[in-house]
TrEMBL record:
Ranges where the FAD/NAD(P)-binding domain occurs: 4-137
Gene3D superfamilies: FAD/NAD(P)-binding domain
Organism: Arthrobacter ginkgonis
Protein name per its UniProtKB record: FAD/NAD(P)-binding oxidoreductase
Domain of life: Bacteria
Family annotation (InterPro entries): FAD/NAD-bd_sf, FAD/NAD-binding_dom, SQRD
Pfam family, one: Pyr_redox_2
Length: 375
């Protein structure tokens, strides 16, 4: 008898889990992969949209291209989950699978920062990246503030990548000297797992005259006065870019799957407190940063768990590993080899930055595109 598996969310984690189950358990599982959208977009493609290297249509990879034996993709929106009964309701059907894997990612809570919806810009969504791209085209110089508005957020390097790439763009347009770039973050270091990458990023910003205020938060902005509000003072800006507050999709809160805002899982098996219900990627609280590369390694842990539950034996991957590529501008990319479960504590050796890793990053994207979509 085949085991039915429902994967909720066809993002980085859901796609990797579907392709791993297709490879390892063909004929033993029927996998249904659900997503509300009709196409996948890599997180890093949003930087390409922001800086005009590709448009929104070019970065979309349609789900209809999925060709994985034993996997059926359905474009549906998940409306409710009863984890105790493994019962899933979408806008098109109801399901009672043997195994449910929640991979719904993180949503943005723009309203969590007063003034941000009215006067701020973001590039963490494709629509936001397009809007900011157009705003930058009209920008003629001034004070740009880029602020991480709360922790946790996806892809810890992304704010630093954006400000370094913005520096390059303003230089190319001849308006860098008319601009002040300032990055603000509540974190104590750009990439806490990697002191070497953090130092490299801090040096890169300093070398380009980019101001960096760490371990400080912005609580709101006043779009009329054009000031950002710190705890004890205000600072003026002409263009405010925020990394929005992240939150788990509402459907997971309503399902009773969350604890302290994120889906609670066993950190070894990634199973929720409910039998046969797992969570991977950005929606889950695993003590590991939110990034596609870690969603992928979580997918391998759950794939092992499903193999073990079907065959009664098998190793469980440790998860928590991943390669993070970091854009430094000038065509240079660095690489952090993160391992959050290393003996002796998390490690993150850093390589580069150099054009070598730019080529490797392109290969990283192409390999996943080929694996998940066959092209
Ligand atoms: C600017 C930027 C740059 C980044 N760069 C990198 C990088 O270089 N390397 C890296 O590893 N990571 C990077 N990331 C982070 C990466 O994109 C995410 O961490 C990763 O996509 C998380 O995978 P996931 O499967 O958990 O969630 P997602 O990939 O977000 O997938 C979740 C899916 O669930 C679907 N969904 C949500 N709610 C519902 C619902 N109710 N019904 C149906 N479907 C639903 C969504 O449509 C989505 O497709 C970057 C992110 C950004 C914003």
């Amino acid at each position: 008898m085949t085991t039915t598996v429902m994967i909720l969310g066809a993002g980085f984690g859901g796609l990797e889990l579907a392709s791993t189950l297709s490879e390892r358990l063909a004929g033993e599982v029927d996998v249904t992969l659900i997503d509300q959208h009709d196409a996948f977009v890599f997180g890093f493609s949003k930087l390409d949209v922001l800086f005009g290297h590709q448009d929104a249509e070019q970065v979309r990879i349609p789900y209809r291209r999925i060709r994985m034996p034993g996997v059926e993709f359905r474009q549906e929106r998940v409306l409710a989950i009863d984890p105790g009964r493994r019962h899933v309701v979408t806008d098109a059907a109801v399901y009672d699978p043997d195994i449910v894997v929640v991979a719904l990612g993180a949503d943005y809570d723009i309203s969590a920062t007063p003034g941000f919806a009215d006067g701020g810009f973001e590039f963490y969504s494709v629509a936001g990246a397009e809007r900011l791209r157009d705003e930058l085209a009209a920008f003629r110089g001034g004070r740009v503030m880029l602020a991480v508005l709360s922790i946790p957020f996806k892809c810890p390097p992304a704010p630093y990548e954006a400000i370094l790439l913005l520096h390059d763009q303003l230089v190319a347009r001849g308006i860098r000297e008319d601009s002040i770039l300032h990055l603000v973050s509540p974190q104590r270091a750009p990439i806490p797992v990697s002191p070497w990458a953090s130092i490299a990023l801090e040096r890169a910003m300093a070398a380009r005259g980019i101001a960096y205020t760490k371990h400080h938060r912005i609580y709101g902005i006043d779009p009329d006065a054009r000031v950002a509000q710190f705890k004890d003072h205000d600072e003026p800006y002409d263009l405010f870019i925020g990394i929005p507050t992240h939150k788990v999709p509402d459907v997971l809160v309503e399902a009773g799957l969350t604890q302290d805002g994120w889906v609670a899982v066993d950190r070894v098996t990634l199973q929720t407190p409910y039998a046969g219900v797992y969570a991977i990627g950005d929606c889950a609280e695993t003590g590991i940063p939110k990034a596609g590369t870690f969603a992928e390694s979580a997918a391998h842990v759950v794939a092992d768990g499903i193999v073990r539950s079907i065959r009664g034996a098998g190793e469980l991957a440790s998860g928590g590993t991943g390669l993070c590529y970091v854009e430094f501008g000038h065509g240079d990319v660095g690489r952090v080899d993160a391992d959050f479960h290393a003996d002796g504590g998390p490690t993150g050796p850093f390589l580069g930055p150099s054009p070598t890793y730019a080529a490797e990053k392109a290969e990283f994207g192409a390999a996943r595109r080929a694996r998940w979509f066959g092209a």
